[in-house]
Amino acid sequence: MRLRNAAIAAASAVTLVLAVPGSANASFGEFRYTYRDAGAERTGRLVGPPSGACVNLAEATREEPARTPKNRTGATATVFPGPDCAGDGSYVLRPGVVAPEGSAVRSVVFS
């Protein structure tokens, strides 16, 4: 009887561990954008960005914001022209959507 109870307890513990949600990522995929560095256009990436947290794009500056974001994650991305997810003109990119050519972005939050 004790062996049976121990087996049930072990199986329950394994089930509980497997049922705990994973990390708070926006999902699989990448959020891509272009930026200028030393006069050349480069591609920036956020891989598995966190949900609900504002992410400032490190390469984006006031003079040279990042451009043309591409939401290749499984979450909705709200992009902002200013740092710290502020500024007029924010817009939403559903999963798989590419913003219009030249759209400026300096920060993003995923939901």
Would you kindly provide a written description of the structure presented here, covering whatever features stand out?
The chain has one helix and eight strands; from the N terminus they run H-E-E-E-E-E-E-E-E. It is α+β, with helices and mostly antiparallel strands. The chain has a four-stranded antiparallel β-sheet, with no helix packed on it. A four-stranded antiparallel β-sheet has the order 3-8-5-6, with no helix packed on it. A hairpin with a 2-residue loop joins strand 1 and strand 2 (40-47). The termini are far apart.
Q: Which helices and strands occur, and which strands form pairs?
A:
Blueprint (H helix, E strand, L loop, with lengths): L1 H18 L9 E9 L2 E8 L6 E3 L9 E8 L3 E4 L10 E3 L10 E2 L1 E4 L1
Antiparallel strand pairs: 1-2, 1-4, 3-8, 4-7, 5-6, 5-8
